[in-house]
Every structure is written in C-alpha cells, then in structure tokens.
DNA sequence: TGCACCGTTGCGCTGTATGCAACGGTGATT
DNA sequence: AATCACCGTTGCATACAGCGCAACGGTGCA
C-alpha cells in the first residue's frame, strides 16, 4: 500500500535481528542508502530507533513503551476483575472500571450495587468526559499537549446543576486531580449521585484505566462516600501492582 | 522528514493510549480519514496493528516481538557472562559469544583458554559466515527467505582445506544444524582447530546469540571436543532460560 | 422507514519521497 | 606519512506515491 511506511517497518523488523548500520540495512531491505538514512531519521525522531556512537542503529525506547502500554490495555480487565469483585462484595456499591479507547473513556467493567438502586451506565458505554470521576482521573494523566485539544472539543452540556460547563473550570479540576491523585463527581453526572475514582497504572507507569464507586445520596452522603476513598485507593494500588506498576520510591 | 512514515508512527503512539477507530485516529492525528485507513492497512500488513470485529484498531503482535528481541539483544552479553566464566573456569577452553549485527555475525565476548594457545579472534571482530560454528548456528535460525540472500552474497573463500566453499554444501550444512540443534567446525576456519557451537534463544523464541568452544587438535582430538557438547548445551540452555526463553513442551 | 455514521473506493493533482552523483570525514593499510 | 576505501551525508531533478475530495454502501439506531 504505502511504500515508504512499508519500508520503514521493514527496517524495524530488520533491526529486530540485531543492530545494523546504513549500508547493511540498505542491502538487506533493498532500499537505496539515502532513503534508508531518511527513513531512519524519521524513526529516530519518534524514538522507534536510535543511533549509537559507532553509527549502528538499534530499536528504540518507544518500542518498549508501546509494548508495555499494549500489554497493560489487554490485561487490565482480567487482572482487575477479582479485585473489583472483592471490593464490591465487601462494600456493596456500584463499581466501574473504565479505560481510554480512542478519544473516549469507555466503561469496560461494571459491578452492580447490592441495594435496589441501578445506575444509568453499561459496559461499552462512553463515560461523559466533563462529569465523571473516571474520565477526570484518566484525562489528568495525559500531558497538556494531548489534554488541550480534547478539552477544546469537549461537550460541556450540563447534566445536573453541578456539572462543570466551562473549559477553564474543567482544567482547574484536572489540576486538582493531578495533585490529590483521585477525582470526585459531586452530583455532576447524575442528580443525587456522588462518585469517587482512582487511577490504575500499568508497567509503563501511565494511567491505563480508572476504578470508581458511585453512591446515591439517599444511601450515603458525600462525606460518607469519602470513607470509601481509602479502600478504593487500596484496590487501585493492588490492581496497578498486578498490572506491573512499580511505584517509584 | 518523511511525512507518511511520521504519520504512521504517530498512529502507533496514539494507539498506545488505547484502541481507537478510523475517525478517532483521524481526528487525534489531524490526518484525513482516507489516509489513516491506508496507513493502518500498511501497519496491519506487517502486524504492527490489527483490527478487531468492531473496527477498533489495536497495537499488534509485532510490537511485542520487537520489544522482546530488543531486550534480548541488549541483555545477552550481561546475562551470559557469569555462565561463560563458570564454563571457562571448569573446562579451560577458548569460549566465544557471538551475535548477529547487521548482516554480520560478530564476537561480542571471548574467554581465553587456560593453556598457552591463543586464537585469532577478538571482541568486535566479524566471524566468517562460511567457516565458523557460531555463524552456522545463528544463520540456521533465519527463515529461508532471509537465509538465501545472505548465502548468495557470502564470501566462500577457503580458509583451510575443510572450508565449505559452495552455497549448496553450506545449505546442506545448515539443514543439518537445524536438525541437530548445534553446529561444528572441523578445521574449517583455522587449520588444526575444531569447534562446536550452540544457540542462545531469547524471550521471543528466536536465536539471539551463539556460544562456542574452540580447541586445537594438539590439545584435544575432535572426538574429545564432542565430550564438551553436553556441558556446552547445558550452558546454552541456562543462558537462554535467563534470557527469558521458555522451551515449549 | 429514514437517517446518521463510518468504512471504503476511484480519481486526479500535488508534493513528497526517491535515486543519483558528488562531497567529506574517518580509519585502516602499505 | 600518504593513499585508499568506506560510509554517512547533502543538493538536486524527476517521477510517482500519497493525498484529499466526493461519492458509495453497508450497518445500526431512532
């Protein structure tokens, strides 16, 4: 299909066999030396390859990064499941697991509360970016350069009286989430429902998902919900650990 | 530098954040949907990405493969070292560790024999492809499609009376190495020196290096050198295991 | 049933990627 | 010390690959 991309990928595959210099790569891929140089420059710009002192090219750090991220993504749901079940059994509250998919935050697991109350959410459904704790937690991990465009194109329609409806207030909120390491949703997404969420980190160190508990205030006041923060953070830490995350000392 | 390559790489980075569909990727990278489709096709052809049933794109298996290979390469020397030292201490023979770099097989470690005899080889030096056991072992792991061009452009100059000097005989030899899992060099590289080599495999399952012992026949006859095969294979297996290789049952 | 969404294709133009030829620095060889 | 070979690098002109556009068609939701 796409010649230059195809050639660049072949270079990566070739480097999988071991480091190599320009000429060797040019010969083994059948591409002109000049072209190989330029392709490798682009690859190196993005850290897919790098060059050592003796002009040997190697596979770069980005490869490891991507592999770690991909592993995390594939595994979170499976790894999180038993922890979520245990948490749900003990506290009996509606528990969500959500992850980034494309530009959306999507619920990838849900455990119902033990009481009658059911919330409007479903596995596979998208979480509102401006009003849910899981979204805040996940977006808070993105670098500003990625966060900005998302916030700019975000739908800020009010779902309740408390919903954050301006980019400015939202960015303030994100700043707070970054500082405290967890997020809340005080009746911002559904009237009379409070929620807190914490991040799950993977081997790459990046946030790969978020867990949250949601409780109607007829069951527990917001202050009582905060009593769940510590156990929730503990669950988050356990899942992160199982996903290969090692907190730096 | 190279627009389409750069865009393709950005797609991979983007997918590191989680699966996404065409439109989402088009928006987050600022590239036309049509173009994204075509780039993803090329990426998918090489298994850098794949599409699931619901048209979501994910990072593909090639990423893991490359990451595993790169890790292996970076680590072999370090991991192998203590095992080689132990082997060298016990048997006192010249021991080499070699790996593929570019189109060449290069000595990346060497331990001298305990007797006076020194061999013509040095860390960083290239091993002759047609006459050394390490090269045979490493090349034997390549698929025929990669092996062929290498053999075709190989230098078959005779170093001794026993050196393999034709592609046909070399391919026969490789076939034998594949079957028995190790290689020999019966005075093919240096007169009066016999050598046997075994592969080191990494987490990816591929051969990432080779270990060999070389002994002048004034010290040991070829038959006596074969007594070292079993311990050498044991060393190879230990290093492979430490490199993350798991033999399939 | 209608509509909206999203992946897909054919086409024609533009700009990018390519190969060539030549330069220059480095390291090995005699 | 001098020469040579090797290899990375650059400028340039050409060709063609990659691109965006517009339109199609299938699927799922309202």
From TrEMBL, chains A, B:
Pfam families associated with the record: HTH_IclR, IclR_C
Molecular function via GO: DNA binding; DNA-binding transcription factor activity
Any single biological process term in GO: negative regulation of DNA-templated transcription
Domain HTH iclR-type: 2-61
Keyword annotations from UniProtKB, A to Z: DNA-binding, Transcription, Transcription regulation
Domain IclR-ED: 62-245
Domain of life: Bacteria
Residues forming coiled coils: none
Entry protein name: IclR family transcriptional regulator
